[in-house]
Amino acid sequence: MHFHDKNPSNPSTRTRHVVHAHFSSPGTIFRTILVATMLVAHSFAGAQDLGKRLANARKSDGNWYFSWGYSRQQYADSDIHVRQPSEGSDFVVHQAKASDDPAGLLHIVRSIFTLNVTAPQENIRVGRFVNQDNTVAIEFSLDHSKYNTNNGQVAHVTGTVDGVAYDGPMTLDKQHFEYALHNGLNHVMINGVWFHHLRDVSLWQEPGDLQLVSRLGGGLLIPHAENTILGHDNSAEIGTKGKSPCCSKHDWWQINGWTVGTEVGFRYAMTKSVYAELTQKFAYGKLHGVPVYHGLASQEIWMSEQVLSLGILF
């Protein structure tokens, strides 16, 4: 409201008009208080409703998932650098070829029932969705892959072998050079995971739901190394699985590097809470300090992996 004083020199007039401007009629004051009260009550009710929705979301089924799978791996040729100072050896095996070690079906079934889950080339995923639409998740993953240099291949070797300079071929076999990350070449990773519905989004967690799934992550390489270098195995350099399993020097599994990887594939809902997943993964790993007889080995590994998993939402 706008007020105009016809006689501004009169103090009493100014005072009277100012008082009238600040203290309106009782009806106006009542209406103002009523509107303010309604706004506060509506805001409080909305906040309570939002809190209930968030609480229900946290308690609802399907925010977590777990899967177990089986995989096959292929490896790019890799240079393996061996250092054995006390043996007078420091050499590189160039472009060594390697393969995985797939288990048979009976072996896989037996390992499940005996809880010997490190026997097959297994894959574990445990994740939690972090958005309301369940399209983004944070995940822990373990890829129990296996790496074995192919016996009988002939590789080029350069460096010093038993104190003698060498530049020539070497047959990689049990007598000269047998190198395995067999139990296994473990990729332990934290991943970001994204899901995209390929069918009607209303089918979420319903049978027939098909999603595109993609992962990006990084973590540690924790292998168990078994190798024989120039006739000497590395059994004295590692511990026993039962007494010293992980993860320091001389343990069965040792932290020997880091890895990054990406994965893409499909997730299909078989029931409301059970799904199957088929993915293709590519990973790069840098290994160092791999125990060999009286020394250490290092290498870079590029891995391609196919994973078939069965999982549950809970």
The strand line-up of the biggest sheet is 1-5-6-9-10-15-16-17
- For the record, the CATH architecture of the largest domain stands as Beta Barrel
Question: Span from first to last CA?
Answer: 61 Å
- DSSP helical segment count: 3
Mean pLDDT: 84
List the uncertain runs: 1-24, 33-37, 43-47, 50-59
Helix/sheet category: alpha+beta
CATH topology of the largest domain: Porin
Considering the chains and any ligands shown, give keywords for the structure.
17 strands, Porin, 314 residues, alpha+beta, elongated, disordered N terminus
Q: Can you tell me about this structure?
A:
The structure is a single chain. The protein has 314 residues and is α+β, with helices and mostly antiparallel strands. The chain folds into two domains: 43 residues; 253 residues, Porin (Beta Barrel), CATH 2.40.160. 18% of the residues lie in helices and 52% in strands. An eight-stranded antiparallel β-barrel has the order 1-5-6-9-10-15-16-17. A hairpin with a 6-residue loop joins strand 5 and strand 6. The longest helix has 34 residues. It is elongated and about 70 Å long. The two termini are 61 Å apart. The N terminus is likely disordered.
